[in-house]
Design brief:
UPF0102 protein IAC63_01100, 36% helix, Restrct_endonuc-II-like, 5-stranded mixed sheet, 5 strands, alpha+beta
């Protein structure tokens, strides 16, 4: 399986996992920053008064998954999230999480990751 297909499959698994935890998926692969630096948020999900911005990583082990989001990437993701929240005029809570998927299909959900 190519890395692109692995990424798509991992995002699908993460969406299923979030739905099982009561979240509604609002967007997948939300892209922003055409002129200010491109950023893509893998999953945007909502439950009650909370919106999650999820970065999904598929790694061989949990350690490399936790280190997969760089400071530069987290800044771009925050900017993309601010753009999305402004667009929908959101006044509730928001959080940045990482979901790491490792073989054989183990899922680790890191809440408030950055």
């Amino acid at each position: 399986m190519t890395s692109y297909k692995t990424g798509i499959f991992s995002e699908l698994l993460a969406c299923i996992y979030l739905r099982l935890h009561g979240f509604r998926i609002l967007k997948r692969r939300f892209v922003t920053g055409r002129y200010t630096g491109r950023a893509e948020i893998d999953i945007i999900a909502k439950r009650d008064n909370l919106i999650l911005f999820i970065e999904v990583k598929h790694r061989k082990n949990l350690i490399t998954g936790l280190d997969a989001v760089t400071k530069k990437q987290s800044i771009r993701l925050r900017n993309a999230a601010e753009s999305y929240l402004a667009k929908i005029k959101w006044n509730g809570d928001a959080r940045f999480d990482i979901i790491v998927i490792t073989p054989p299909l183990k899922i680790k959900w890191i809440k408030e990751a950055f």
